[in-house]
Amino acid sequence: FFFECPWCPRLSVQAFEAGRVMQKISLAPEAEQKLETLYARGLKQGQLGDALQQLGQFFPAVQVEILERLEEVDWATIHNKGGFLKGIMERYRTRPPLHLTTDDIKSESTILCPPANALLEMEMCKGTLTRSALSDGILQTLAAQDPETQVEILRRFGEADLSTVQRKANFLVGIIRRYSPLPHTTVDATLIMAPVAQEKLQKLIAEGKLEARELQATVLAAVAALPPDTQSKILDRFSEVDFSEIRNKSAFMKGIVKRYAKKSEKQRPAPKAPAGPLDGSMCTGNPPDQPTPSFWVKLEHLFVTGRLSRDEFDYELCGEFSDFPEAIAVEILQKYEEADLSMIKNRKGFLKGILRRYCKNGSADGNSPQFRALPFSVQVKIETLVSIGLLSPYDVNDACCQALAEFDEHTAVEILNRLQAADLGSVRSKAAYLMGIIQKRKQELPEDG
């Protein structure tokens, strides 16, 4: 017998004697050309097995696209290439017309560009990401980038060494942040706001009343600087308005925050650790279950000595401190305390100036020239160490990046591997420790010939 596949007329099946069915598959010419490219790269004939028979069932353009997905992965990590190709095809069979839309969010802001969507599908095929691990906030944040940036972010994720990363979705968030100099999404909000406020904010986004990009990071930090019950009231008040009549939703929320902040200040004398409106975990970006006594002790000391008033340390300053880990926040207060304030008229502005200098000099910004000058594998290694909590972004400063750039790519990664293998539990300055490893490696270079 003989029949033609309705999806691809070139697909034919012929029957032979004794009931034995032999399948003769003809791929589209452009797909055959792509397959020849894969063979030239080292793919062996027969490794794909009967997967090629299934491939012929797709439209010609889709056949090529599927083979491109196979070409983009590291074959050394794939034991069964035929099974992997089938996994890609299965996702192409089941993917919805609009990629990555969710049941809760009916907004185009969550639709990735086709190349980025294909890369994300590939990661799901590999098992590095799952749809359940990707929150709507992450997809929205990624979709908010321009198409080229979406693709670059997912390529960097795919090329990273994820063997030591437990929460791979969080690692993806870390890469996205480096492409967002001013964080403005729910990803940042969920890290510092109380759970009850997070839930209400996510609900507004899920209902399509609000887009994450419409709220500035400083406003979200200002909300987080208040007690959880006040955060909840602010979100309730915010959700009651008619959003169609509001042009600047971020400014509108800021107005609500100011009113509640004034009420909160009237009800309480001053924030004291660990209770009060300026919860230490919110001001230093640490999880709520990790208190930050050092920061609050230093801040209280400034209040008592009169070097800073409680009115000067308002929710805006608290929001700016939320961008730093506790150790850096304490160091900033120490710098402020050591300064000669006798000639300073605006002490709050002076403190904000110190904060800005730390933002400029820290390598938390992945767009800094020193960091971007490093080989890509070195950048990924640093991001990996940050994502697993071994380092904070401020531990690898511009000086460290410049020193690493003096080595070739392999040696720089080796230095970071040495840092990862070290016991850093008692190390106070990881940046200085890293510089020590770098200096020692420089001394070893002549012996290497």
From TrEMBL:
<feature type="domain" description="Heterogeneous nuclear ribonucleoprotein Q acidic">
    <location>
        <begin position="27"/>
        <end position="93"/>
    </location>
</feature>
<protein>
    <recommendedName>
        <fullName>Heterogeneous nuclear ribonucleoprotein Q acidic domain-containing protein</fullName>
    </recommendedName>
</protein>
<feature type="domain" description="Heterogeneous nuclear ribonucleoprotein Q acidic">
    <location>
        <begin position="374"/>
        <end position="440"/>
    </location>
</feature>
<feature type="region of interest" description="Disordered">
    <location>
        <begin position="262"/>
        <end position="287"/>
    </location>
</feature>
<feature type="domain" description="Heterogeneous nuclear ribonucleoprotein Q acidic">
    <location>
        <begin position="124"/>
        <end position="179"/>
    </location>
</feature>
<feature type="domain" description="Heterogeneous nuclear ribonucleoprotein Q acidic">
    <location>
        <begin position="197"/>
        <end position="260"/>
    </location>
</feature>
<dbReference type="Pfam" id="PF18360">
    <property type="entry name" value="hnRNP_Q_AcD"/>
</dbReference>
<dbReference type="InterPro" id="IPR041337">
    <property type="entry name" value="hnRNP_Q_AcD"/>
</dbReference>
<feature type="domain" description="Heterogeneous nuclear ribonucleoprotein Q acidic">
    <location>
        <begin position="298"/>
        <end position="358"/>
    </location>
</feature>
